[in-house]
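Example record

The entry below shows one chain as it appears in the dataset: sequence first, then structure tokens.
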Amino acid sequence: MCKALEDMRNDALAEGRTLGRAEGKAEGRTLGKAECILEFLGYLPGMISESLRASILGEKDNGVLSNYLRLAATSSSVEEFSSQLS
């Protein structure tokens, strides 16, 4: 393989690794935020349904999760939190 092609290949591999790490970090932050929401809700009166748990853990939009976190921190019960999601 010629030097130029090898350099291009190595650059592409390095860029792919960097992008993969960045995506992994973003996914980790999103999952961490979802878990924090569930932890907040766990301190509130009421049961966290499996569908609510799945909905929170399945949410990938960080802005939506930030709103959920704010709601969880200010709700007086799981039911109040759930009713504000609709």
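Notes for this example: Residues 3-85 form one domain. The chain has one domain: 3-85.
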